[in-house]
Amino acid sequence: MENIDWVYMVEKMQDIRLFSRLLIRRSSKQYEMPSQHLELLSQLAVSKENMTPMSLSKSMGLNKTIISRIIDTLNKSGYLIKTRDEDDKRSYFVSITELGREQIDDIYKHYLGPIYDLRRKLGDKEFYELISLIEKANTKILEGERER
Fold first, then answer.
1. What is the CATH number of the domain that holds 114?
2. What are the CB-based long-range contacts (under 8 Å, 24+) for 94-101?
3. Which of 31, 53, 110, 112 counts the highest number of beta carbons within 10 A?
4. pLDDT of 114-129, one tens digit each?
5. What's the number of domains the chain is made of?
Protein backbone atom coordinates (compact mmCIF):
# COMPACT_ATOMS: atom_id res chain seq x y z
CA MET A 1 0.00 0.00 0.00
CA GLU A 2 1.14 3.52 -0.77
CA ASN A 3 2.37 5.73 2.03
CA ILE A 4 -0.40 8.32 2.13
CA ASP A 5 -0.33 11.44 4.26
CA TRP A 6 -3.78 11.01 5.79
CA VAL A 7 -3.78 14.48 7.38
CA TYR A 8 -3.35 16.08 3.97
CA MET A 9 -6.04 13.84 2.49
CA VAL A 10 -8.50 14.71 5.28
CA GLU A 11 -7.87 18.41 4.63
CA LYS A 12 -8.54 17.89 0.91
CA MET A 13 -11.72 15.95 1.69
CA GLN A 14 -12.88 18.90 3.80
CA ASP A 15 -12.11 21.22 0.87
CA ILE A 16 -14.24 19.06 -1.42
CA ARG A 17 -17.11 19.04 1.10
CA LEU A 18 -16.95 22.83 1.46
CA PHE A 19 -16.89 23.25 -2.32
CA SER A 20 -19.99 21.05 -2.64
CA ARG A 21 -21.83 22.82 0.18
CA LEU A 22 -21.13 26.23 -1.39
CA LEU A 23 -22.45 25.12 -4.78
CA ILE A 24 -25.58 23.29 -3.64
CA ARG A 25 -28.41 25.54 -2.62
CA ARG A 26 -30.96 24.25 -0.19
CA SER A 27 -34.54 24.20 -1.34
CA SER A 28 -37.00 26.74 -0.09
CA LYS A 29 -40.80 26.72 -0.32
CA GLN A 30 -40.67 29.03 -3.34
CA TYR A 31 -38.51 26.61 -5.34
CA GLU A 32 -39.86 23.26 -4.16
CA MET A 33 -41.09 20.93 -6.86
CA PRO A 34 -40.79 17.15 -7.00
CA SER A 35 -37.91 16.12 -9.26
CA GLN A 36 -40.17 14.11 -11.59
CA HIS A 37 -42.44 17.13 -12.06
CA LEU A 38 -39.45 19.34 -12.81
CA GLU A 39 -38.06 16.77 -15.24
CA LEU A 40 -41.39 16.50 -17.08
CA LEU A 41 -41.69 20.27 -17.42
CA SER A 42 -38.06 20.44 -18.57
CA GLN A 43 -38.76 17.78 -21.21
CA LEU A 44 -41.69 19.84 -22.48
CA ALA A 45 -39.66 23.06 -22.46
CA VAL A 46 -36.86 21.67 -24.63
CA SER A 47 -38.92 19.38 -26.88
CA LYS A 48 -39.26 20.41 -30.50
CA GLU A 49 -42.11 17.93 -31.06
CA ASN A 50 -45.55 17.45 -29.55
CA MET A 51 -45.29 15.15 -26.56
CA THR A 52 -47.88 12.64 -25.45
CA PRO A 53 -48.06 10.87 -22.11
CA MET A 54 -46.63 7.78 -23.84
CA SER A 55 -43.63 9.67 -25.29
CA LEU A 56 -42.98 11.24 -21.86
CA SER A 57 -43.25 7.81 -20.25
CA LYS A 58 -40.60 6.43 -22.61
CA SER A 59 -38.22 9.38 -22.37
CA MET A 60 -38.42 9.57 -18.57
CA GLY A 61 -38.45 5.82 -17.93
CA LEU A 62 -41.63 5.98 -15.84
CA ASN A 63 -44.85 4.05 -16.30
CA LYS A 64 -47.77 5.81 -17.95
CA THR A 65 -49.88 5.82 -14.77
CA ILE A 66 -47.25 7.86 -12.90
CA ILE A 67 -46.87 10.21 -15.89
CA SER A 68 -50.65 10.71 -16.00
CA ARG A 69 -50.73 11.63 -12.30
CA ILE A 70 -47.88 14.11 -12.74
CA ILE A 71 -49.61 15.62 -15.80
CA ASP A 72 -52.87 16.01 -13.85
CA THR A 73 -51.09 17.73 -10.95
CA LEU A 74 -49.15 20.09 -13.23
CA ASN A 75 -52.27 20.82 -15.28
CA LYS A 76 -54.21 21.78 -12.11
CA SER A 77 -51.31 24.06 -11.12
CA GLY A 78 -51.46 25.78 -14.50
CA TYR A 79 -47.96 24.67 -15.53
CA LEU A 80 -49.06 22.68 -18.57
CA ILE A 81 -52.05 22.18 -20.81
CA LYS A 82 -53.51 19.12 -22.48
CA THR A 83 -54.66 19.37 -26.09
CA ARG A 84 -56.75 16.61 -27.69
CA ASP A 85 -55.21 14.87 -30.67
CA GLU A 86 -57.63 15.52 -33.55
CA ASP A 87 -56.47 12.35 -35.35
CA ASP A 88 -56.81 10.07 -32.31
CA LYS A 89 -59.57 11.30 -30.01
CA ARG A 90 -58.34 8.96 -27.22
CA SER A 91 -54.96 10.67 -27.01
CA TYR A 92 -53.73 14.15 -26.18
CA PHE A 93 -50.61 16.28 -26.41
CA VAL A 94 -49.06 18.04 -23.46
CA SER A 95 -47.38 21.44 -23.62
CA ILE A 96 -45.84 23.76 -21.08
CA THR A 97 -47.59 27.04 -20.29
CA GLU A 98 -45.92 30.40 -19.83
CA LEU A 99 -46.45 29.99 -16.06
CA GLY A 100 -44.74 26.58 -16.21
CA ARG A 101 -41.82 28.02 -18.16
CA GLU A 102 -41.43 30.86 -15.64
CA GLN A 103 -41.51 28.37 -12.77
CA ILE A 104 -38.73 26.16 -14.14
CA ASP A 105 -36.70 29.24 -15.12
CA ASP A 106 -36.90 30.46 -11.52
CA ILE A 107 -36.06 27.03 -10.11
CA TYR A 108 -33.03 26.54 -12.36
CA LYS A 109 -31.78 30.10 -11.75
CA HIS A 110 -32.00 29.44 -8.01
CA TYR A 111 -30.24 26.07 -8.00
CA LEU A 112 -27.69 26.79 -10.73
CA GLY A 113 -26.89 30.34 -9.59
CA PRO A 114 -23.76 29.37 -7.63
CA ILE A 115 -22.40 27.42 -10.60
CA TYR A 116 -22.96 30.35 -12.96
CA ASP A 117 -21.24 32.62 -10.41
CA LEU A 118 -18.28 30.24 -10.27
CA ARG A 119 -18.07 30.22 -14.07
CA ARG A 120 -18.03 34.03 -14.17
CA LYS A 121 -15.36 34.22 -11.45
CA LEU A 122 -13.09 31.56 -12.95
CA GLY A 123 -13.66 32.46 -16.58
CA ASP A 124 -14.72 29.95 -19.22
CA LYS A 125 -11.29 28.38 -19.71
CA GLU A 126 -10.66 27.54 -16.05
CA PHE A 127 -14.30 26.61 -15.47
CA TYR A 128 -14.28 24.07 -18.29
CA GLU A 129 -10.93 22.71 -17.12
CA LEU A 130 -12.45 22.21 -13.65
CA ILE A 131 -15.53 20.50 -15.09
CA SER A 132 -13.32 18.29 -17.26
CA LEU A 133 -11.25 17.22 -14.23
CA ILE A 134 -14.40 16.52 -12.20
CA GLU A 135 -15.78 14.37 -15.03
CA LYS A 136 -12.45 12.53 -15.29
CA ALA A 137 -12.38 11.95 -11.52
CA ASN A 138 -15.97 10.65 -11.56
CA THR A 139 -15.07 8.23 -14.36
CA LYS A 140 -12.04 6.94 -12.45
CA ILE A 141 -14.04 6.54 -9.24
CA LEU A 142 -16.81 4.66 -11.06
CA GLU A 143 -14.26 2.41 -12.76
CA GLY A 144 -12.80 1.60 -9.34
CA GLU A 145 -16.27 0.82 -7.99
CA ARG A 146 -16.92 -1.61 -10.86
CA GLU A 147 -13.60 -3.39 -10.29
CA ARG A 148 -14.49 -4.21 -6.68
1. 1.10.10.10
2. 94/44, 94/51, 94/52, 94/53, 94/56, 95/44, 95/50, 95/51, 96/41, 96/44, 96/45, 100/41, 100/44, 100/45, 100/74, 101/45
3. 53
4. 999 999 999 999 999 9
5. 1
